[in-house]
Amino acid sequence: MAEDTNAVVEESLFDEFKEHSISEFFRKNRHMLGYSGRLRSMTTIVHELVTNSLDACEESEILPEIAVEIKKIGSETFGVNIEDNGPGIPPEFVPKVFGKMLAGSKLHRLVQSRGQQGIGAAGVLLFAQMTTGKPLKITTSTGNGTIYEMEIKMSIERNEGDVVSEKTREGFWRGTRVEGEFKDVTYNRREQGPFEYLRRISLSAPHAKITLEDPEETIVFERTVNDIPERPEVMKPHPYGLTTDELLHISRVTDSSRVSSMLNNELSRVTMKRIKELEEYVLRDTLLENYRSSVFWDTIVSCYLNFDFTKYFDIYGHYFDKKEIEDVKQLINGLPEGLGELKTYCMKYLVTQYLVQKLDDEELKEIKNHFKKKPENFMEYMDKKYLNASLLDEFRRKLKDITKSPAEFVKSLVDLAMVSDTELEKYRKAIRDLLKKNPKEMTWKDSEVIVNVLQDMDFMAPSTVGLRPIGEENIEKSLNTLEPEFLKTLTRKPKTYKGGVPFAVEVGLAYGGEAGRSGDESRKMEIMRFSNHVPLLFDTSGCGLTNAVKSVNWRRYGLRNDEDAPVTVFVNLISTHIPYTSAGKQAIASSNEENEEIFNEIRQSLMICARDLEKHISKIRKEKEEEQKRKYVMKYAVIFAEGLASITGRPKEEIEANVVNLLR
Ligand SMILES: Nc1ncnc2c1ncn2[C@@H]1O[C@H](COP(=O)(O)OP(=O)(O)OP(=O)(O)O)[C@@H](O)[C@H]1O
Ligand SMILES: [Mg+2]
């Protein structure tokens, strides 16, 4: 009987089974788009429309002029109008831009832009419609003599935009103006409101002129740079950080007819010469894979690795805990997959070896504890206390050679009679066949093999052409408005993170003056976060940028503690795809476990700036101490000179001058 009841329940459950549109989903989850809290919702409206205007102007190489108007039009209703001098939107696209979620020109390209999802504009319309029931009014023209005025509503079930009314008039004007009415919003000049948002966006887009007309007055954020930034370029994924899934996806959409030409056409820095090399690397890994669980594994590993971990553990093993040694052994067993992580340990060991040989017992005792810390923490400590950049570079170079070249590896196997010529030829043919394959037929395994060897090969760093930093000089100009006593900015070279996506980090450190935010008694550390030049004002604690800043041990760099310091930390992450934690785009997904390349790069850049800050702070401290000493000398010199003058009968002034000279 019980079985029968269950069957009935299941049936009725599936009676309710329905499909929903993406707009329906966001109607129910508007907080995911940043529409939660009255002030935050207002900032989100401004943010979505202003970033669209800036993106459109930059793509069309127009110096942006953006006017934001915020009016109170009812006891709880606000009107928001935003106008730009951008390229305009062709009328047939207007309903799609504002009425359809996941539609836009940016989602499918690896281009650095503020928007990337195709949701922002439609989100603004959805929010207007949900709170006032009114459409958005769009006035736009591409400058061809016709100006379109359209009212758009969203059909939520269909995820489509509907034109409520449409008018055209003649006139020569180019740009886009969006007008809407919203409830559940408010306006004030607090830190998370539109005023601060626009102030910050003008710091990171110094070529834009932005006017804000709020209920009190009109404020103009003038441009400080008159050059139009170069147009952002489409970039291809870089082999470093490419994932199996990403390469498989590329194989399904590419026009190339062979795997080899696909690698050459669709990835950056992969030349035909590199693809020839890749054949040898694949051969090496195939051979390695073959012997994985055989009795010859240790021999094979010694032919594969240049670094003798066993010998190393015999000499230095007592510095590390047993668990770490076990972990490393596991990584060796899992080769070639664990190679990246193995390199981190290897770096630690190279440093340990160097220090053990160089330092005396006292110093070794002090750092012995740190040998047991995680490799990255240990490295940071050592980097700061004992090592210099050129030494670390030397270790990094050594690290590149942790594995033998494929030719050497194959040769040692042949010498040991582990593999015959016929077998080798069989493997080589299979690899050639893989590279000749039609990409559409590529399997998960094929993709995995290629992605693994790409990580181990040498490629030039991603090109700088596609990424558009704000630039050290411009960040300096912006931060100088705080009149700090110390300022350092740094724009780093591009790197890649998961998926082969290029990114670069820019940081600035301002100390003293108006830097930091005012706290109860003293100034506190202020973190200004930006991604692709857009200020991030919300979700501070869940953001990878904040966490990277906080992970730096600021006390080591002369600050009293992490919080209590007159410091403004400026971080801008630029990339062709920013890994946001949610569709609201206010926090970055990066930590020492996820997209750690970004996390580490921010830490590194900040630590470079912090080293100079430390020099500055200790110079100031020394100067203060000197000054104190001088005051003491002066105070006692007078008393001392008086005494001596009365004993010797010589003039007091002469003795005083001599005493001061003597004590200095
Ligand atoms: N002011 C504008 N001028 C010209 N084109 C615009 C303007 N605003 C939006 N667009 C076009 O409409 C598309 C959709 O904008 P929307 O904000 O929805 O998405 P997005 O900017 O691509 O990504 P995101 O959701 O991350 O903001 C954009 O990709 C762009 O092509
Ligand atoms: Mg957008």
TrEMBL record:
CDD domains: TopoIIB_Trans
Histidine kinase/HSP90-like ATPase domain residues: 37-156
Residues engaged in binding ATP: 52, 84, 105-106, 115-122, 585
Pfam families: HATPase_c (PF02518), Topo-VIb_trans (PF09239)
GO molecular function: ATP binding; DNA binding; DNA topoisomerase type II (double strand cut, ATP-hydrolyzing) activity
GO terms, biological process: DNA replication; DNA topological change
Reaction catalyzed: ATP-dependent breakage, passage and rejoining of double-stranded DNA
Keyword set, alphabetical order: ATP-binding, DNA-binding, Isomerase, Nucleotide-binding, Topoisomerase
E.C. numbers: 5.6.2.2
Protein task: Relaxes both positive and negative superturns and exhibits a strong decatenase activity.
Protein family per UniProt: Belongs to the TOP6B family.
Subunit structure: Homodimer. Heterotetramer of two Top6A and two Top6B chains.
Name of the protein this chain belongs to: Type 2 DNA topoisomerase 6 subunit B
